[in-house]
Design brief:
The complex is a heterodimer. By secondary structure, chain A is mainly alpha-helical. Chain A has four helices and no strands. The chains are: A mainly alpha, B alpha/beta. The interface between A and B is small, with 13 and 10 residues.
Chain lengths: 79, 358
């Protein structure tokens, strides 16, 4: 992953899910994070598309089930 | 194909002895406090220890006594963390009167994870006093009691079947998933059958099968059904009272979970819950059992090994525990069910996915 990408992604997750500084982003999963609801999910997708200048397919949107999954997806989409 | 395997127990003390022998006292291998501060958390086994196991395979088994090792290649896929037990498998790729080549895999039995894979090439040395004798691979271990009950395991060369074979030990008898000649039992009674063997997923959409429809349905649905029925017949004829037939299924076959890329595979596996109930009724009349066990993606060697990282992560993210079951853990659960004497498991299809959500 390119330098700065992961930091930007963490900032998106922190902002959308309103995480405290003390909370870990790396272990976030939609299944176990109550603040990751449908509205937050859409916000995450929109923020990722906007920040990284991407258009996600339906299949790619479905893949973002955790922070780790989002990292992997961005890695794959890097030029 | 000639295949030989042996098991090795490795402890921290043995790693220390290897350090003394090789002079490699790197703290990653010898100092628990130092290793605790690394990503591994505890000392890992020297990579050269694995090379020594390759040497053992060559000098003692393939080709054995007359061996002269020409070279070896190793790839360290995952760290080996003592104490644990390793299974070393050598497969003869080709051999001539002058030379040969063997592939070797080292798997951690407790986790089912493949740690090392590689190969070596060998020739033969000459012995001055007498003509060299090329050792054939040693015969398979003979059973102490020719009348001892056996556990039949289909798919025993796959990841799950192989791990299960190790757990079951001497009484394991690899069994073809195709209708088999029961003369191979040599009169030994069957104490259980675990059916892990299954054709690989088809990856074809039903509406695109065209002229291949009959053959594809036969291969992915009809043949597996016939195989399961034949196994039930084998158990009914040769099985001990209380012996189970355990059919290994997949979450892909559960309602709402079927995979659009593997429709026939999903359909074939979806037979298991209903077939389990039917066979439970029929085998129950003989005091025998039938049960189904369903796993999601299994982490480790086997059919699921080629699943992409993205798919594995997606499945792990659906688990309350955030992880996939390992080959070793899946085999341990099957082994536990094999040894569970209760008749009340019969007819059940157990989904062992740790509460994974669809």
């Amino acid at each position: 992953m390119q330098p700065g990408t992961e930091q930007k992604l963490q900032e998106i997750f922190r902002a959308v899910l309103e995480l405290d500084e003390s909370e870990s982003v790396a272990s976030l999963r939609s299944l176990t994070e109550p603040r990751w609801n449908s509205l937050a999910h859409v916000s995450l997708l929109a923020a990722i598309e906007s920040e990284f200048n991407l258009t996600l397919t339906i299949e790619e949107m479905d893949r973002i089930t955790s922070y780790a999954a989002a990292c992997l997806l961005l890695e794959e989409k890097e030029p | 194909m000639t295949e030989v395997h042996f098991e090795v127990r490795v402890t921290f003390e043995e790693a220390q002895r290897f350090a003394a022998l090789s002079g490699d006292h790197n703290p990653l291998h010898t100092d628990p406090d130092y290793a605790a501060g690394t990503t591994f958390g505890r000392p890992i086994l020297h990579g050269a220890f694995s090379a020594a196991l390759f040497s053992r395979m060559a000098g003692m088994h393939l080709p054995g006594r007359a061996c002269l090792l020409h070279g070896m290649r190793l790839r360290f896929v995952a760290p080996i963390l003592p104490p644990t037990t390793l299974r070393v498998t050598g497969t003869l790729l080709h051999a001539s009167p002058e030379a040969g080549e063997v592939t070797v895999a080292i798997d951690d039995i407790s986790t089912g994870i493949r740690c090392v894979e590689g190969s070596y090439r060998y020739g033969y040395h000459q012995q001055r006093e007498s003509a060299p004798v090329l050792d054939a691979p040693p015969p398979a271990p003979t059973r102490h009691d020719p009348a001892a009950p056996v556990i039949l395991i289909t798919g025993s060369s796959g990841g799950l079947g192989s791990a299960l074979r190790t757990l079951v030990g001497e009484s394991a008898l690899p069994w073809s998933r195709n209708p088999s000649d029961t003369d191979l039992l040599q009169g030994r009674p069957v104490a259980g059958i675990i059916h892990c063997g299954w054709p690989a997923p088809d990856n074809q959409r039903l509406i695109q099968l065209g002229s291949a429809t009959h053959a594809a349905v036969q291969h992915q649905v009809a043949a597996p059904l016939e195989q399961m029925i034949t196994l039930a017949q084998t158990l009914a004829t040769h099985g001990l009272p209380g012996a189970p037939l355990i059919l290994v299924g997949s979450t892909l076959a559960e309602p709402g979970w079927h995979h659009y890329r593997m429709p026939l595979y999903s359909l074939g596996k979806s037979l298991i819950p209903t077939l389990t109930r039917i066979l439970a009724l029929e085998l129950g009349a003989k005091g025998q059992k039938c049960l189904g066990v369903v796993f999601d993606i299994i982490e480790g060697p086997g059919m699921n090994a080629s699943t992409s990282k993205a798919i594995r992560l997606k499945h792990a993210d659906r688990s309350p525990f955030g992880q996939l079951i390992t080959t070793g853990e899946a085999a341990a659960q099957l082994h536990w069910l094999l040894n569970n004497p209760s008749i009340f498991t019969s007819g059940a299809t157990l989904t062992l996915s740790g509460g994974m959500v669809p």
